[in-house]
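Much of our argument rests on the idea that a fold can be written as discrete symbols. Part of our work consisted of pairing the sequence of a single chain with a tokenised description of its backbone. No coordinates are needed to read the tokens, only the vocabulary itself. The record that follows shows the chain in one-letter code together with its fold in token form.
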Amino acid sequence: MLRERPFSFPTDKSIRVIIDTDCYNECDDQFCVTHALMTPKFDIKGIIAAQFGTVHPRSGTEQESYDEIVNLVHLMGLDGTVDILHGIDRALSGRDDPAFSEGSQRIIDEAMSDDPRPLFVATLGAVTNVAAALLKAPVIKDRMTVISILGAPYPAGGFEFNLMNDPVAADILMTSGAKLWQVPSSVYTTMKVSYYEMLNKVYPCGEIGKYLVTHALEFAAKIQGMIAQMKDLLPPSDDMPEITIGGELWSLGDSPTVGIMMNPTVGRFHDEKAPSRVLPNGKYEFDGSDHGTIRVYDDIDSRFIVTDMFEKLKYNFGN
């Protein structure tokens, strides 16, 4: 269980948070979810399992995400304290796709509630569940802020893992006029942490700390083979980035969402005209139509975010 704090945060300063995560895709989601669950400012209204079966072309990825969320909550001693919700188990086929999930319904319910506190929906993977919620209840676009680890840099866009797991959903979200704060790949890949930092500052922090580090090292050991497989299975792309593993570090690419929800000024940002369309290859198309603007982060204070995670792990689970 989380350690009792000698202080509390004023309730009018807390925010409602829904996390939508492809939690077993790799190993950064686990750090982000754990960090969020330790953050007192967040009133977690649900954690939704996201699919990641397009770039990893197999079935059952949503269930893998769900099971991993359950695992993390258990390792933190928080069983029964947070709602874990199933998401849609595949990418959307088009704007008329009727796919829906209990996670999508939770987004709608929270957006439409009379709770005056801000609602943030943090997406760490494909935005399938958020897009389905927007299709069913377009009015929610004005009643929440979506923070997405999503997309390649502007103006061109291009291949990016989360977007490519559901390009239709990305198109729906980014052209919806919703309040969207986007962290593109050029920014989230700067969230570097060394394995020695993990070993010194995370591994000693209870069962959750041991698991986070062990899983990260095990995943890193097999990632090169997975990358080769993905390249063989995906259609040829002239802008697919070269993905290599340095051997002594990892990028906690989902964790900017936690820092941004703690305080939006942990990174610099600008407003970008929303694309007219997001193409199946991840490119952004602009034809002069007006879909509002998107807040796009240009950089992130990775050291603040990572250090805050370390200190919360130590406070709650350290010796």
